[in-house]
Amino acid sequence: MVPLLLVLLLALVLFGAGFAVKILWWVALAVLVLWLLGFVVRSTSAGGGRGRWYRW
Q1: What average pLDDT does the segment 3-32 reach?
Q2: Any stretches that span the bilayer, and where are they (predicted)?
């Protein structure tokens, strides 16, 4: 009975980790799109493409 519970617990943990990783990929994709949009908007609107679009 204990090995069965351990296998089910492992399956649950791996399913949860896979779901979290999938969400993180979607978050990373959304951040990339926002970053690219910010780059395009700032470079086209700030003095002929010479504008800084970041604050580093």
Answers
A1: 88
A2: 30-49
